[in-house]
UniProtKB/TrEMBL annotation:
Pfam families: Aldedh
Record bears the keyword Secreted: no
GO biological process per UniProt: L-valine catabolic process; thymine catabolic process
Top-level class of the enzyme under EC nomenclature: oxidoreductase
Every Aldehyde dehydrogenase domain range: 16-476
GO molecular function: methylmalonate-semialdehyde dehydrogenase (acylating, NAD) activity
Keywords: NAD, Oxidoreductase
Classification via PROSITE patterns: ALDEHYDE_DEHYDR_CYS (PS00070)
Top-level taxon of origin: Bacteria
EC number: 1.2.1.27
Name of the protein in its database record: methylmalonate-semialdehyde dehydrogenase (CoA acylating)
């Protein structure tokens, strides 16, 4: 049994904690590894290593920092297939999907390679006679990143390259369900020339997260996970005086107006509903059909679902298993609750015949029609391959439904009416909007983040917000003394 430990100050490290978690291959159900669950003392070792490294890394030139990022980008690019295999082995998503996740992570590394430009300050000459003023952005010191199971590579890469490029040292705490990819990233960063201690990985659970939230040397925390934990992390971290951005859960709606191209809308609903077995924070889980197109749209979606192959992600299937047996049981219980509440199960994923080991954590794609807003399959984030169709009579009703939902991560509208689309982008209370695009995950040079219960904090992930989150601004006013500037004057300084 492989023991998956931590990575601190450039070396693998097991720590003193004897607590362990199980790691599974979700497509076979077999336990493939044990992960060390860090104690508070183990976390302190990592934070102290990061604090030592931060003192010199903050002074590394921009040229040096970007050279390390370029080298890291080359390593990840060259080894992307290996990374995808590691993701599939512990998460279960199919290899093509895992490769897509690596690609989206690479885009953030590429953005961070341009840090000399992103960190440029502003200079104003002669704000007063012979007085200049300029702004700088400086690193925070030690920052922590806590990531969820569903993107073991992309989510750490939303934050780590930018934090490091800005001159910080990082302690990354990946999900204990699929911890191996983060260790590879840290080793490859070291191989790319990142000094020891600038990026450390501690594996663990609540104890490790609490230790990071409480450690006085940790200045900022970027968290991604479910809404209750995100809220908790935000409250505990900010109460301890830290800067926190905590991205939470989602319930993403796709509104289809009657004038939409129904074939394109059906393709999009299937791709965004069942990709990665619905374990994406940008998955579409509620499809809002504006009548009279409900019947036609449901028929087209069901037709496409008949062609989907669920099975082992290494066998070229369309959709893999769920991440753990417990999660598969939870999602299955939502399907049962949907049937019991009177929703129409047009396609029932419990009947799936997977192309894979019978011990895998299987549940096939499930389509519910005639779902109503009080059913638990609508109110809760299921995080599985379950797509619910709600039917409404008008655009106004669709908008009201979406805006009444407590989550506000992503949404999409399908229509050929530019005016309706523009109205939706203006009126909807959601952080990321797709117009005829089902998963509007912004590119690395824009920022990623939801509204309402989908994000606690002010700044979003990566892009300009990422640079702002991982730096503090300083403004300098400077005058090089000239004998003409002498003299005592107690009046409030103004321009002259
Ligand atoms: P999770 O909340 O269970 O875990 C996230 C992280 O928090 C993990 O590292 C975990 O070890 C840690 N954690 C778990 N319990 C904790 C506790 N009690 N105290 C402190 N830390 C704790 O989430 P998950 O199941 O790994 O991931 C799925 C969730 O993440 C979904 O809700 C999904 O919507 C969300 N997500 C959101 C985004 C986004 O950008 N908004 C992106 C990806 C995933």
């Amino acid at each position: 049994m492989t023991l998956i430990g931590h990575f601190v100050e450039g070396k693998r490290f097991v720590g003193t904690s004897e607590r362990r978690g199980d790691v599974f291959d979700p497509a076979t159900g077999r336990r493939t590894g044990e992960v060390a669950l860090a104690s508070t003392a183990d976390v302190a070792v990592a934070v102290e290593a990061a604090a030592r490294a931060a003192r010199s890394w903050r002074d590394a030139s921009l040229a040096k920092r970007s050279a390390v990022l370029f080298a890291f980008r080359e390593l990840v690019h060259a080894r992307r297939d290996r990374l995808a295999e590691v993701i599939t082995a512990e998460h279960g998503k199919v290899l093509a999907d895992a490769a897509g996740e690596v690609q989206r992570g690479l885009e953030v590394i590429e953005y961070a390679c341009g840090i000399p430009s992103a960190l440029r300050g502003a200079f104003s000459e002669n704000v007063s006679t012979e007085v200049d003023s300029y702004t700088l952005r400086q690193p925070l010191g030690v920052v922590a990143v806590v990531s969820p199971f569903n993107f073991p590579v992309m989510v750490p890469l939303w934050f780590v390259p930018i934090a490091v490029a800005c001159g910080n040292a990082v302690v990354l705490k990946p999900s204990e369900k699929d911890p191996s990819a983060a260790l590879l990233l840290a080793e490859w960063f070291a191989e790319a020339g990142l000094p020891d201690g600038v990026l450390n990985v501690v594996n663990g659970d609540k104890e490790a997260v609490d230790a990071l939230l409480d450690h006085p040397e940790v200045r900022a925390v970027s968290f991604v996970g479910s809404t209750p934990i995100a809220r908790y992390v935000y409250q505990r971290g900010t109460a301890a005086g830290k800067r926190v951005q905590a991205l939470g859960g989602a319930k993403n709606h796709m509104v289809v107006l009657p004038d939409a191209d129904l074939d394109l809308a059906a393709d999009a609903a299937v791709n965004a509903g069942f990709g990665s077995a619905g374990e994406r924070c940008m998955a579409i889980s509620a499809l809002v059909a504006v009548e009279p197109i409900g019947d036609a749209l449901v028929a087209r979606i069901a037709e496409r679902m008949a062609g989907l192959r669920t099975g082992d992600g290494r066998r070229g299937c369309d959709m893999g298993p769920l991440v753990t047996a417990a999660h598969a049981a939870r999602v299955r219980s939502y399907v049962e609750a949907g049937v019991a509440a009177g929703a129409v199960a047009v396609v029932d994923g419990r009947d799936v015949q997977p192309d894979g080991d019978p011990g895998g954590f299987w549940l096939g794609p499930t389509l519910f029609d005639r779902v109503t807003p009080e059913m638990s399959i609508y109110t809760d984030e299921i995080f599985g391959p379950v797509l619910s169709v709600l039917r409404v009579g008008s655009y106004a009703e669709a908008l009201e439904l979406v805006n009444a939902n407590p989550y506000g991560n992503g949404t999409a509208i399908f229509t050929n009416d530019g005016g309706a689309a523009r109205r939706y982008q203006h009126e909807v209370e959601v952080g990321m909007v797709g117009i005829n695009v089902p998963i509007p995950v912004p590119m690395a040079y824009h920022s990623f983040g939801g509204w309402k219960s989908s994000l606690f904090g002010d700044l979003h992930a990566h892009g300009e917000d990422g640079v702002r989150f991982f730096t503090r601004a300083k403004v300098v006013t400077s005058r090089w003394l000239d004998p003409r500037h002498g003299g005592v004057n107690l009046g409030f300084p103004t321009q002259s």
